[in-house]
Design brief:
Structural class: alpha+beta
Largest sheet: 7 strands, antiparallel
Mean pLDDT: 84
Helix content: 40-55%
Strand content: 5-15%
Order of helices and strands: EHEEEHHEEEHEEHHEEHHH
Radius of gyration: 30 Å
Distance between the termini: 79 Å
Oligomer: single chain
Shape: elongated
Length: 361
């Protein structure tokens, strides 16, 4: 069995903590900690006459992709999903107007259905090293993401109303909700069909109010949470664009790999679990193939696969070139200033020695 003469290290700390580990270790690639994507999420709920018991059954069983294209048609849009609604979630996510309203919301938890909008964010943030081992997150919603979230949230409310909800509300602090009218008039028992419910003028007015409350999205006014964190050590083909190469190997350090959501070059737009597992599996297989050839006898490897050796050689050459860009250029002014300072020292020493000889005469 072949034994490696060097050590391989793989970091899996997540998009929030991996940059801190790397920066504390002395790495200075400017892309480490940048390009943070959070999958911003907001929600709305509907109250129904029948029991929903949103804490039972399988979670996330339905998904609506009507808004995934986004307002600009570039794929940075939102999905509508249906997570479980546990009593604790109801308490944490509900608005607070007064104690009576809050109590009524919790008492009706068995009749509530919650749905969320998960935004594939085009905007980016960053994570920084805080005091000790803490992390500081800096993130602002991009205007395009705000517009997409508001459009998907309006569509989500229409789904709740069309499905027969008696009352709907967003998580915005200024939203008092909307009581749905499911019959044609107060003295009639003729129920409206889903299209007629949505077409009511009162519903359209409420949707306009929701849009006004969420555009722009002011801090501490509505519920915006992060579903998934990605992208803070993204991989790419050059060190000018990424922190890792296409094999997940840090540009600044050979044999140091990242294998978590930090590698994502963009937000995935959906739960990143399967994508993360797939990328990790792909990079692991590449590493296995690389080790096979680096551990094999050189002459034998040349006979078996000359192309593979050429690829390894070109890979190392490219890594040397890219990593040198991270260090040579930033230190050029420092080197110049060092040369100038050394020259001044030599000149001053020569002047002092000459003056001393002059005094000796």
């Amino acid at each position: 069995m072949n034994r490696h003469s060097f050590c391989f290290c793989c970091r899996v700390q997540g998009a929030l903590n991996t940059p801190g580990v790397l920066t504390r270790s002395g790495f200075r690639n400017p892309h480490i900690g940048k390009h943070l994507h959070l999958h911003p999420v907001t929600a709305a709920y509907g109250r129904y006459r029948e029991d929903i018991k949103g804490w039972l059954g399988a979670p996330m069983t339905s998904c609506n992709n009507e808004f995934v294209s986004g307002p600009n048609g570039d794929g940075y849009g939102a999905r509508i999903e249906c997570p479980p609604l546990h009593p604790g979630v109801s308490a944490a996510a509900s608005q607070w107007h007064d104690s009576v309203q809050f109590k009524e919301t919790l008492l009706s938890a068995r009749n509530l259905a919650l749905a969320i909008t998960l935004q594939r964010d085009i905007g980016e943030g960053q994570v920084k090293q805080g005091p000790g081992d803490t992390v500081t997150v800096d993130y602002e919603l991009h205007p395009s993401d705000m517009q997409s979230i508001a459009a998907a949230l309006k569509g989500l409310i229409k789904v709740l109303i069309a499905s027969g909800a008696e009352r709907v509300s967003t998580m915005h602090n200024d939203d008092n909700g909307y009581v749905c009218r499911n019959i044609s008039c107060a003295s009639s028992n003729n129920k409206l069909n889903p299209h007629e419910r949505i077409a009511q003028q009162e519903v359209q007015n409420y949707l306009q109010l929701v849009e006004k409350q969420h555009l722009p999205m002011r801090k501490h006014k509505g519920l915006i949470i992060s579903a998934h964190q990605m992208g803070t050590c993204r991989f790419g083909t050059t060190s000018a664009q990424s922190a890792c190469d296409e094999n997940g190997e840090l540009w600044e350090c050979d044999n140091l790999f990242v294998a978590d959501t930090s590698l994502f070059p963009t937000a995935s737009g959906s739960n990143p679990m399967v994508t993360t597992l797939t990328i990790s599996h792909m990079l692991s297989r590449r590493l296995v193939q690389r080790l096979k050839y680096e551990d094999s006898n050189s002459e034998k490897a040349v006979i078996e696969n000359q192309l593979q050796l050429e690829l390894i050689k070109s890979r190392w050459q490219r890594r040397i070139t890219e990593s040198s860009k991270l260090y040579v250029y930033p230190f050029t002014p420092v080197l110049l200033s060092g040369v100038i300072a050394a020259s001044l020292v030599v000149v001053c020493r020569w002047c002092i020695q000459s003056f001393a000889r002059y005094l000796s005469f």
